[in-house]
């Protein structure tokens, strides 16, 4: 559903590349236009930042540190610039490997900056916290919506995983976007009282985003945040309430 409009948003960059690919400055225009279109997408459209290139480097902490300087547009530009340069050298060897010097030099400097920034942060001796991301087994991508029992099963799995990372010392636990559907009469904590779960005596913050189906089969998204105090760690998770902080 979102692939077509997002593809159209990115289309101008490819059209310009197709027309001016023989120009030397095309290697800057292509990543610049794509990055600009991404910014327009998550700034002025309801599609948010879906498909933004910067997210592809989420697991490489040394690379994503550059976001502290130039934001997501800076990282997206670097990704597009490196890739378009490599693609051009592969498809047209006559271009010469010198085409790669500038983008790969910038990539190297980005990695060095990230490593130095991470090491300096460790050297300060400041306390850090463990952060955990909990994913869902839900495969819902549209109609038909799952039944209440199916949704409850997914919620139980999410809380089981949340318990595991919380007991390993995570202070911030976040569920993925639209981790599950939440029905009005469904137990949001999704925990079987006959199987109480005991937590460590430390508090942590749980952030989640659930989908709430309406009577007409449309879906609203609800962002919730809960600060779980230490005194509740030794009680069943059904006794822990979640407070809504934002409604989309």
Describe the protein's architecture and organization.
A five-stranded mixed beta sheet has the order 1-2-3-4-5, covered by helices on one side. By secondary structure, the protein is an alpha/beta fold. Helices cover 44% and strands 15% of the residues. A hairpin with a 5-residue loop joins strand 3 (204-213) and strand 4 (219-228).
Short description:
44% of the residues lie in helices and 15% in strands. With 248 residues, it is α/β, with parallel strands linked by helices. The chain has a five-stranded mixed β-sheet, covered by helices on one side.
Quickly list its features:
248 residues, alpha/beta, 15% strand, flat, disordered C terminus
Radius of gyration: 23 Å
Helix content: 40-55%
Order of strands, widest sheet? 1-2-3-4-5
- How many beta-strand elements? 5
Termini separation:
18 Å
Q: What order do the SSEs take from the amino end to the carboxyl end, as H and E?
A: HHHHHEHEEEE
What would the average pLDDT be, to the nearest integer?
75
| Low-pLDDT regions | 188-202, 213-248
Q: Which structural category do the helix and sheet elements fall into?
A: alpha/beta
Give the percentage of residues in beta strands. 5-15%
The major pleated sheet works out as: 5 strands, mixed
Shape: flat
Q: Helix segment count? A: 6
Architecture blueprint of SSEs:
Blueprint: H1 3-20, H2 26-44, H3 61-64, H4 67-91, H5 101-123, E1 130-134, H6 148-167, E2 170-175, E3 204-213, E4 219-228, E5 243-247
Parallel strand pairs: 1-2, 2-3
Antiparallel strand pairs: 3-4, 4-5
């Amino acid at each position: 559903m979102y692939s077509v409009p997002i593809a159209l948003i990115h289309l101008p960059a490819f059209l310009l590349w197709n027309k001016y690919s023989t120009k030397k400055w095309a290697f800057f225009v292509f990543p610049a236009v794509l990055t600009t279109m991404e910014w327009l997408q998550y700034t002025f459209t309801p599609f948010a930042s879906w498909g933004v290139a910067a997210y592809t480097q989420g697991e490489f902490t040394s690379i994503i540190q550059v976001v502290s300087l130039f934001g997501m547009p800076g990282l997206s530009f670097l990704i597009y610039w490196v890739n378009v340069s490599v693609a051009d050298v592969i498809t047209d060897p006559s271009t010469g490997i010198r085409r790669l010097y500038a983008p790969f030099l910038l990539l190297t400097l980005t990695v060095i900056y990230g490593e130095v920034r991470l090491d300096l942060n460790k050297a300060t001796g400041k306390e850090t916290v463990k952060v955990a991301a909990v994913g869902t087994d839900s495969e819902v991508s549209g109609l038909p919506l799952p039944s209440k029992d199916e949704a409850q099963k997914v919620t139980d799995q999410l809380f089981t995983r949340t318990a595991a990372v919380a007991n390993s010392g995570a202070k911030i636990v976040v569920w993925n976007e639209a981790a599950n559907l939440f029905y009005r009469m469904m137990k949001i904590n999704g925990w079987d009282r006959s199987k109480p779960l005991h937590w460590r005596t430390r508090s942590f913050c749980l952030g989640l985003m659930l989908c709430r189906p309406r009577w007409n089969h449309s879906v609203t998204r609800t962002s919730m945040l809960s600060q779980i105090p230490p005194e509740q760690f030794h009680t069943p998770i059904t006794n822990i309430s979640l407070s809504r902080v934002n409604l989309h």
